[in-house]
Amino acid sequence: MSRKLQFQCPVCGSGDVFYSCEPKCCFNHVCAECKATFEPVTKPAGTAKRRIAEPQEMPDASDPAVACAKCESVAVYVDDDGALVCKDCGTVLEVELTEVTP
Ligand SMILES: [Zn+2]
Ligand SMILES: [Zn+2]
Ligand SMILES: [Zn+2]
Questions:
Q1: Residues 93, 60: Cα–Cα separation, whole Å
Q2: How far is the CA of 90 from the centre of ligand 3 (A)?
Q3: What is the pLDDT at residue 60?
Q4: In this structure, which ligand is nearest to the CA of 70?
Q5: Can you give the pLDDT at residue 1?
Q6: C-alpha 19 to ligand 1 mean position (Å)
Q7: Fewest CB atoms less than 10 Å from the CB: which of 13, 53, 82, 88?
Q8: C-alpha distances in angstroms, 53 versus 15, 64, 68, 84, 100?
């Protein structure tokens, strides 16, 4: 089973983080607790590709999102073991939180 993405605020550690923009613009996220903003970027983890199913609970527009480093798809979900996987191309991704503004 896959899960939808979730990030922790890089400033206060809260999981109450939402995506404030849209994929055609940017990946700015905002923490509901401390109002910090950040942008997650992905890079290939370098491990074998894998297949991932869509999560049972699909993310809505304000749920955390990232673009796949390989194909730019936003269909990126979390696998059983916590790995981020692009559903469209199967790339396993690592995520880094950039542009952190407290
Ligand atoms: Zn925060
Ligand atoms: Zn934007
Ligand atoms: Zn991809």
A1: 21
A2: 6
A3: 94
A4: 3
A5: 85
A6: 13
A7: 82
A8: 23, 18, 16, 12, 31
Measured from the alpha carbon of residue 37, the closest ligand is: 1
Cα–ligand 2 centroid distance for 72 (angstroms):
16
Instruction: Evaluate whether residue 11 is within a structural domain.
Output: no
Residue 85 has pLDDT above 90, yes or no: yes
Q: What is the pLDDT of residues 25-80, one digit of tens each?
A: 999 999 999 999 999 999 999 999 999 999 999 999 999 999 999 999 999 999 99
> Contact at 8 Å (CB) between 75 and 87?
yes
* Residue 96 resides in a domain: yes
**Whose atoms come closest to the Cα of 16: which ligand?**
1
Instruction: List the domain range (segments joined by +) for residue 38.
Output: 17-101
Residue 8 lies in a domain: no
Domain assignment present for residue 10? The answer is: no
